[in-house]
Write a structure and sequence with these properties.
Blueprint: H1 2-14, E1 22-36, E2 41-51, E3 58-72, E4 75-87, E5 97-113, E6 116-130, E7 136-151, E8 162-174, E9 186-200, E10 203-214, E11 221-233
Parallel strand pairs: 1-11
Antiparallel strand pairs: 1-2, 2-3, 3-4, 4-5, 5-6, 6-7, 7-8, 8-9, 9-10, 10-11
Amino acid sequence: MRNRKFLVFVFLLFSSPAFAQQAEHSSWYMYLQSIKFGPHWGAHFDMQVRTGDDRDYIRNVLIRPGITYYLNKNQSLTLGYLLAETNRNLDGTANNRLTEHRAWEQFMQNHKIGGVFAAHRFRLEQRFIEQPAGDRLFSQRFRYFARFIVPLKKREQTFSKGFFAAVQNEVFLNLQNKSQLNNSVFDQNRFYLAGGYRISPKIDLEAGYLRQSVNGLAVNTTNHVIQAAVYTRF
């Protein structure tokens, strides 16, 4: 009962209405891996493929490696790089593919709230964004991410196998050169509800619905996303 009340609270907190003039429908496919080399050092890797509106072409491919330092069993620091390719899918346009290079730093905190497994992520990004004219825009962005996993079985100190429900939210804030992006500190918000199955302590399969609310320069967009993900931990 306490878990249900907690999930209702999180849903109401994170699902504030989005004032968008445009709607899209896409799919995101993700693979996320963390590897621990020893008590303190490890690596992060994730790859994402995202479709365009109505899922009729591949819009984005993202590759994000990183090196992690574990402060303790619940806290970690990661330094990484991201390569993002964007297909604009515009007819009659010579430069349809735009590339973004990004450095990122993050702090991760894990803990439990009763039978709920919680994670908080604070990430700072330095973005080198290719523009249609060929020049690059430099910008910095801050992201805060909160995720909660509820095992759908009797409570255990650790969750090693079985079905689970997940709810998460991430907010993005522009810190630099926002006038050339969307003229706002608020960049976007991503709210996500999912179900999954933990095959073992090392592998999770997950699928759900993500609502991406983007604050654009000329028009705001709500993107309704079907997301599927594989998580591995070694």
